[in-house]
Amino acid sequence: MNEKEKFLTIGQxxxxxxxxxxxxxxxxxxxxxxxxxxxxxxxxxYYNYHQSSVLETILLLRELDISISEIQSFxxxxxxxxxxxxxxxxxxxxDKTILHLQAVRKTLCNHHQNMVTLLTMDLxxxxxxxxxxxxxxTIDIDKHISFEKEVEMITSETAKYQLGRLHDAxxxxxxxxPNLLNGNFDNYSKLFIEIPxxxxxxxxxxxxxxxxLRAFHKGDWNELPLRYQEILKYADKxxxxxxxxxxxxxxxxxxxxxxxxxxxQIEIPILS
Length: 272
Fold this sequence. Notes:
The chain is an alpha+beta fold. It has 8 helices and 11 strands. The chain has helices spanning 10-16, 21-29, 52-63, 68-76, 80-120, 147-159, 177-181, 224-237; strands spanning 7-9, 37-38, 45-48, 127-131, 134-140, 170-176, 190-194, 205-207, 210-218, 245-250, 263-269. A hairpin with a 6-residue loop joins β2 (37-38) and β3. It is elongated, with a radius of gyration of 30 Å.
């Protein structure tokens, strides 16, 4: 007899597929997957090799969180067309899940990096760092727009990208280098939103990659202009040409209770 025509016990068949034999017993009881034969004398279930592909299909569908009732419906109307449609739908769902998990991972990495920065930073230091290019969603603002209106604009903009929560994105503000050089330290141009899963698309702001001046400011925002004056003096002293925008973002809002402890990270690109 050909090896593939031999029968396997329920234990052997379960072990071959990495499942518990109770799962096979349950599948038999609900009519989803039955053994090839049942010994009429002792009720023992036996399976053959040719049933493996059918069981593996069921196990794959279960791994995709397809309900038992859906699988039963498919098994009763099993065909290449029905399986193609079912798998196409689940591949689409899986792609969305992967995209979400990638976004969550990037958000966690951003928070983790912020904590590393907090634990190693020197608040008085101004230094040069290397940054990668980023794609940002931006919102134009001016000093006459109220905070409530800014929140409304952010909420509206992020809704376009179907974020699960606001904290799936990171936020900050932008002030142009010409405004800084002219002493207009409160003349902010834009709010930016970095959404983890965005790639370069039409209409997005491209934050350049390359060298940046990085500094930090802790405490009263009214004293930010003094910090910018220090940054500009540092750039002038070291012959550095700043361009584009200053990108500001808070890095410790998740671990503080007082606004006086709020730390802003300031990064301004440098012309090579």
